Amino acid sequence: MNYDSLKLGNQLCFPLYACSKEIIRKYKPFLDPLGLTYTQYIALMALWEEDNLTVKALGERLYLDSGTLTPLLKKMEGQKLIKRIRSSEDERNVYIKLTEDGNLLKDKAAAVPEQIGRCFSLSNEEVLFLHQTLHKILKQI
């Protein structure tokens, strides 16, 4: 039997996993001064783009389940970055709304993408290709 398909170096998932983990680690020195984890940062980016999302919609945008998202949102609420507001029409729906502090953090975080970009030697074309390819994969999952 040929076991080449089981070699770690032949897996698509492994370099994606390792890159993701290492890229997220690169964010730490830029996010620590803002008091944010990477997951909090991406949640804020989604809310800066479209505020007042339901927990469900935010989870779908971030590819996070409620078991991961709920404690994250509780912590962010404790940091006074967001408010969780239960719908008066349907109590099962909880909306996430940025606070003034959450909105103000956007200006401080504006430099993070450029700072991260300087960590890698990729051309604009390579970044665009990678971005498009990864989104194509996500749409198929």
UniProtKB/TrEMBL annotation:
<dbReference type="InterPro" id="IPR039422">
    <property type="entry name" value="MarR/SlyA-like"/>
</dbReference>
<keyword id="KW-0805">Transcription regulation</keyword>
<protein>
    <submittedName>
        <fullName>Transcriptional regulator</fullName>
    </submittedName>
</protein>
<dbReference type="InterPro" id="IPR036388">
    <property type="entry name" value="WH-like_DNA-bd_sf"/>
</dbReference>
<dbReference type="GO" id="GO:0005737">
    <property type="term" value="C:cytoplasm"/>
</dbReference>
<keyword id="KW-0238">DNA-binding</keyword>
<keyword id="KW-0804">Transcription</keyword>
<dbReference type="Pfam" id="PF22381">
    <property type="entry name" value="Staph_reg_Sar_Rot"/>
</dbReference>
<dbReference type="GO" id="GO:0006950">
    <property type="term" value="P:response to stress"/>
</dbReference>
<dbReference type="GO" id="GO:0003677">
    <property type="term" value="F:DNA binding"/>
</dbReference>
<feature type="domain" description="HTH marR-type">
    <location>
        <begin position="9"/>
        <end position="139"/>
    </location>
</feature>
<dbReference type="GO" id="GO:0003700">
    <property type="term" value="F:DNA-binding transcription factor activity"/>
</dbReference>
<dbReference type="InterPro" id="IPR055166">
    <property type="entry name" value="Transc_reg_Sar_Rot_HTH"/>
</dbReference>
<dbReference type="InterPro" id="IPR000835">
    <property type="entry name" value="HTH_MarR-typ"/>
</dbReference>
<dbReference type="InterPro" id="IPR036390">
    <property type="entry name" value="WH_DNA-bd_sf"/>
</dbReference>
<keyword id="KW-0963">Cytoplasm</keyword>
